[in-house]
Amino acid sequence: MTSSQPTHPTIEIGGVPVGRDHEPFIIAEMSGNHDGSLDKALDIVRAAAAAGAHAVKLQTYTAQTITLDVDSPEFRLSDDHPLWGGRRLHDLYEEAHTPWEWHEPVFSLARELGMLAFSSPFDPTAVEFLEGLGVPAYKIASSEIVDLPLIRLAAGTGKPIIISTGMASVGEIHAAVEAARSVGNEQVIVLSCTASYPADPSASNLRGIPVMQDAFGTPIGLSDHTMGVGAAVASIAFGAVLVEKHVTLSRDEGGVDSDFSLEPDELALLVSETKVAWQALGEPRIGARESEREGLRFRRSLFVVEDVQEGEPVTARNVRSVRPSTGLAPDTFSLLEGRTFRRSVARGTPMSWDLV
């Protein structure tokens, strides 16, 4: 399943280029970490901006639009779930949802602070609502990747579509990407993702990132639920162009997603270290870099290390390997040893064949 799309496409989100030739695009996912407080939500926006994130993202749903108010085993999480064991879906989403009337002040503050702001819609009413707020992109959550009508609706707006792929098969990802393209939208970014909370780093499977790029012909990013920034930084080496991480003001304060969220100082570290990782990629070549030009001058070579007279033999006492590099290569000493100097030579003269 190979796409005919460009190998390294660049996509613009709100005027910001996202692709292999640009520094990693960092999304701070607020999710339910506002804990039902608009003031806290706005503080998270301020913290994300101060940390250098490119965008802040919300999730646009209500408990009623994402599930049903039903109490049966189908509508409860498993008892052994590490964070939300036994909870009813409706109760969890009621707690975690971001009130729709908060979106405008959150988005406005983000823009005021120089960040982009957008959201994950979970049903058609959310797309309609977000269109009214002029969002620059849409994120499709992992569980919604099978909702192809929702993907086509969001892609039909002409905005970039970011598709998270936790739990998805190759066929499901292909279907989602093609759903977006079917309405004429080629601005698709696919996110490698492990949909467990928190995710074990061993399940990240970062080696799959270049495989995904070859398969789908889109830029590939990472939606990361591991603790810390290690997996996210490593993903850049495999070609990730975007990293999304959940963000909280303090894990100690609790909250539905706080256990696998970054605190502000960690988000700042993510921004700086993914940029360093991207800068370090370079090109697929081996050899001296331009920045090493001065260092080349100070490689070792053979020099006359004491004054010698015409006719004296070359010995290990009067010729040695030292820095800098303007003399003969050190390995030529065996060819020089025992030969005689043609003329008197001062200490500090680089060895050359015309001296013997």
Automatic annotation (TrEMBL):
Cross-referenced InterPro entries: AFP_Neu5c_C_sf, Aldolase_TIM, PseI-like, PseI/NeuA/B-like_N, Pseudaminic_synth_PseI, SAF, SAF_AFP_Neu5Ac, SAF_PseI/NeuA/NeuB
GO function terms (MF aspect): N-acylneuraminate-9-phosphate synthase activity
Residue ranges annotated for the AFP-like domain, each copy included: 301-356
Gene3D superfamilies linked to this entry: Aldolase class I (3.20.20.70), Antifreeze-like/N-acetylneuraminic acid synthase C-terminal domain (3.90.1210.10)
Record-level GO BP terms: carbohydrate biosynthetic process
Xref: PANTHER family: N-ACETYLNEURAMINATE SYNTHASE, PSEUDAMINIC ACID SYNTHASE
Protein's UniProt name: N-acetylneuraminate synthase
Organism: Terracoccus luteus
